[in-house]
Amino acid sequence: MAITVTMPQLGESVTEGTIGAWLVQPGQAVERFESLVEVITDKVTAEVPAPAAGTVGEILAAEGQRLSVGAPLCTLETAAADGSAAIGAAEPIAAEPSGDEPSADEVGPAEVEPSISEEPQSEALPPAAENQGTAGVSVAPEAPPAPPGLPEEPNGAPGFISPAVRALAEEQAVDITQVTGTGFQGRITKRDVLMHLESRGTAPATSPRQPPAPRVPAPAPALPGARIPHTPMRRAIAEHMLRSRQTSPHAWTMVEVDMSGVASARAARRAEFHASTGIDLSFLHFGMKSTCLALRAVPTMNAVFEEDAIQLRKEVNLGLAVAVGDGLIVPVVRGADQFSVAGLAQAAANLIERARQGKARQEDLEGGTFTLNNAGALGTVMSQAIINQPQAGILVMDSVVRRPVVEGDGIAIRPIMNLSLSFDHRINDGASAAHFLRAVKSSLEAVTPDSALF
Fold first, then answer.
1. Predicted TM-score (pTM) above 0.85
2. Do the Cβ atoms of 262 and 453 come closer than 8 Å?
3. Within this chain, do residues 176 and 312 fall inside the same structural domain, yes or no?
């Protein structure tokens, strides 16, 4: 029988996607779960798998075409003689929905499981203040237990288990009843299966049904007079930036932060920190902690503007803007205010390292409530970022640069960082924005070699 594969909904707020590349041709035989096509949304790129084994029929959507959720992608001839293979969207392998509230970040989509790069800062600073980037091992926060009262399947697993997740569990010889679900209503996601494998020290086994390695587009050539066609990622970023500017009145302010204490703490604790976590302690980790403390002190900066109210967010889910390919993505550290400096470093390293290895997932990019951009890793000294809608603001850590400063009647050389805030003037006025920046600044300048990291 012939079935129609349709555009899946890749996230709660996603209503359309762009066809990136077809991975199959008409007449090609495919197995169940084999990837058919790349679909690019403003969140992530996902590979849509075949809902059943069969032969690819007609391709109904062209590469580069934008389609709404539910639009037909292709037909598939299967051997099924009944209606068991219902017409509809196949669930994507690489983009398990988490059920968390998504954020319309100012990011373009990464490849399915995108590849992330982050350049370390290399300003002329002494060894105590030379690194503003992140690197290290992958350590994920402990997954919360599934909520009670969920329906049980015959095998004892809570809730619905998608075909893609069940197939992965079978391929990796994972007992699904031993996996804790962190998705919507305790649903077990692909991420949960992979994290279960990591927890028992087992590397995922290779399988012919695994999706191909992600293709990271090379940077466009910077040739004089060249005409560079828009990629789906660049087009999505352009739409996000324009929508953000049209949606919220942007205001901007900045403070200077004396990073002497942070630099001293990093120099004194760097070896201990690396020995305990495997991660190089950086300015970014202190910036993450200080930002979380300031978001709790000024809750209107962790909020969203609605028609009849300003909705304060319950959780602090901190997004980290990261360059990838020809655009940006923003992995999110959920519950970031509950972590120590070491915990934030581990969570960030886990997200970034997983993405560098081509293993980032859609849920990694959803649910952000505020964004921190470590632009100083690229050498910037003063930045005006565009807000990730619908968030209330975005904070930029610029380069830490040695500057002369007045101390009493003398001049001293100090490592100084500009801290730049773009904020939605519908939600916050200048006073609350300044209060927020002062809170971040005070927290950073209060750091000493004895400050708690763990």
1. no
2. no
3. no
